[in-house]
Design a protein that fits this description.
single chain; 81 residues; mainly alpha; two-stranded antiparallel ribbon; 5% strand
Length: 81
C-alpha cells in the first residue's frame, strides 16, 4: 500500500515538474465531477494537497490499527534521517 501511495505521489511530482509556470497558470480544465467554469491548476492544487493528506492519514491509521510500528515521525517522513 505504501508503495502505491509513493508511486502516485511520484507521478504527480513528475507531472508538475514538466509543467511550465505559464501552463500551470493558464491551462484550464474541469474535472468530470465539477460544474461551472473551468479553472487553472492553481485553483486545484490546495484541494489536491488536502485530499492527499487525508489519504496519507488513512493509510497511517490503517497501519497503526494493524499493529505496525508507525509513529508521527513515520507520518511526517522524519524517521530514519
Amino acid at each position: 500500500m505504501i508503495q502505491v501511495f509513493d508511486d502516485g505521489m511520484a507521478s504527480i511530482r513528475e507531472e508538475f515538474n514538466q509543467t511550465s509556470h505559464e501552463e500551470f497558470l493558464n491551462t484550464r480544465f474541469k474535472p468530470f465531477c465539477e460544474t461551472g467554469d473551468a479553472k487553472n491548476w492553481a485553483h486545484f492544487v490546495p484541494e489536491m494537497m488536502t485530499h492527499m493528506a487525508m489519504h496519507k492519514m488513512q493509510l497511517w491509521m490503517y497501519l497503526k490499527l494493524h499493529g505496525l510500528p508507525v509513529t508521527m515521525g513515520t507520518y511526517y517522513g522524519t524517521e530514519n534521517r
